[in-house]
Amino acid sequence: MNELDYNKILLKNLWWLALIILVALWFHFDLNFNSAFPLENATMLKGRLITNGEGSNIIHDNYSLPVFTLLYSFGGLIISRISSLILSFLMLFFFYKFTYRLLQDKLASIFAVIFLAILAPIIFISKFASVDILSLTFFTIFLMISSEIITIEDRKKRVPFVNIQKQYFCPIMASLFLALAIFSNYILILFIIPAIVILFFNDKKSAIYFTLSSIILIMIIYFLNSKLINHQLSSIPLISHESIKFSKLLVRIAEYIAIPIMISYSALQILWKTNIKSSWIYTLLLLSLIIPLYIIIAYDVFNIYRFISFSLILLVPLCGLVISKFIMINPNYKYATIFVLFFIVVLSYWHLTKLENAYPDTTEITKYCEDNFDNNSIVYSEDPFLLSNHFYPKMNINNFKNIYFTNTKNLSVNDNKEFIINQIDNGMFDYVILNGLFHKEFSELLKDKYLNHKYSKLMKTEIKINSLMYPLTEEENYFEIYKIDLEYKLLRKFLAKKSN
Hints:
Layout: H1 3-12, H2 14-29, H3 38-51, H4 77-103, H5 106-117, H6 120-126, H7 132-158, H8 166-184, H9 192-202, H10 204-224, H11 226-234, H12 246-265, H13 278-287, H14 290-298, H15 304-329, H16 333-356, H17 363-372, E1 379-381, H18 388-391, E2 400-401, H19 413-425, E3 431-434, H20 440-451, E4 455-463, E5 477-484, H21 486-499
Parallel strand pairs: 1-2, 1-3
Antiparallel strand pairs: 3-5, 4-5
């Protein structure tokens, strides 16, 4: 198809495509959707700690190296979300390049980008202040370069003297960006072996260069950060989801990928209208199942919205192919396509609303703390990052205690629970902040047995969220702030002097 034909098709569909793009932009640019989530607070805090030369105080993060959080060390929450938004548009550019190299179809690539831009998980992490969008960008660049490797043989048949150096340069660059993607989100290590196998069947020489360079790069990064990486990989997930039913887990996965998988599978039915190999369609479909299988095996409900985006990146090129071919085969299919895309927009709005309200608005409670806490206050907070980011560097980071802070003697979770109980029992905290979202049973234990006679309740505010990320029961949940009674505070000072 020539450029004129592309333009004619796009002009005929301009009104509804423009409307979808405007809605997608509205979704993306709505940055003030909630106060900072725990992961956003953690990301911004780590970036600021590194900037201020306090990297040794970095707290638990199961997935990424802290160096990537430097992007979020300047400005407040909205500035950090803008940083993610800018990266998301860069990611969409590389996604277009990847799709076009894979399909060699401009129209399909344009539809694929539009399709990707209206999916809720992509929209959410595009404006979420965490390194997820950075890892997705690195991963997309890796796919773009890998698609160059697997299509180079076909293009050499058509165009003499295609740059043979790409057989050496592309595998090394692909390994570099996959390594960067892995160390900005460790879950992507699951794609190393599949990448090697796929490259081996397409170009053995490229596969060898890719494998060797990947091993070297990962070893270099590991040895430079071995202590931190070992600590992160061995850390226990923040939240236990044993109460979530398996059927509910499957439904949550299907909510995000069922429609893209169905549309992608239909690409097999239009092979006679395109030059794409059926093996590539099967490959993309199989690769897209890696993350869902991990989520099912690990029972990782909390991170579905983060990890499922990598599956969508693999599925959506085929969705773009199907949509473009439907419109080209028969103009009447245009109306079915419009209905499907607008249905996905509505579905994404529903999903996005749930994601944006999956953690309570903490503005009220952080304002209360800012007005009442002093610079020397020692605080236990159930949410590990609630206050640490808001008050740093005005307050000492070591004054904020939580089960998952690495500077709490590097104890296990159970040992840290005992440590917190002993600290409360001995009157060592000025304030205790609970919400029942992270450790409901432990919070109830503290309130029933340890806080009643030593601490007074200062504030109680109802939590209004859905159960998308946190295993809430039908009971009401509250943020609660407790303050130590004066006599126990004096006792703490007395004991501190005596120990000195």
